[in-house]
Write a structure and sequence with these properties.
Helix content is 15%, strand content 11%. The strands form two sheets. Strands 1-4 form a two-stranded antiparallel ribbon. It has a two-stranded antiparallel sheet with strand order 2-3. Bound molecules: FE3-S4 cluster. The site of FE3-S4 cluster has 14 residues, from loops. FE3-S4 cluster (F3S) binds next to loops.
Length: 108
């Protein structure tokens, strides 16, 4: 499955959701998660993300490997929060796109 990682936090551009053929995205307050049981590994979302937050689970940078479990858990927690239409990014997304070490800011 594909996995959303740290760069998405506080950006949430949502360009990824409208190209998903299986409606695999779930929305939290400042992050999206992909349901690994819905994802069909089609790769469509990857080039859509302006901050390169999406990786196949076997190519995730080491420091973000825990996002595999996180997408699994949060997509279940947010099971009724489907998102498949691109919306406005978060306020100040552009500034947050430049920042690192955002994991502690993830809101559930
Ligand atoms: Fe997040 Fe990128 Fe999608 S910032 S909402 S993974 S387009």
């Amino acid at each position: 499955a594909y996995v959303i990682t740290e760069p998405c936090i506080n950006c949430k551009y949502t360009h990824c959701v409208s190209v998903c053929p299986v409606d695999a995205f779930r929305e939290g307050p400042n992050f999206l998660a992909i349901d690994p049981y819905e994802c069909i590994d089609c790769d469509a979302c990857v080039p859509e993300c302006p901050v390169e937050a999406i990786y196949p689970d076997d190519e995730i940078p080491l420091e973000w490997e825990h996002y595999i479990e996180l997408n699994d858990r949060l997509s279940e927690q947010w099971a009724d929060r489907h998102i498949n239409i691109t919306a406005d990014e978060m306020p100040e997304a552009e500034a947050w796109a430049e920042k690192e070490d955002k994991t502690s800011l993830l809101q559930e």
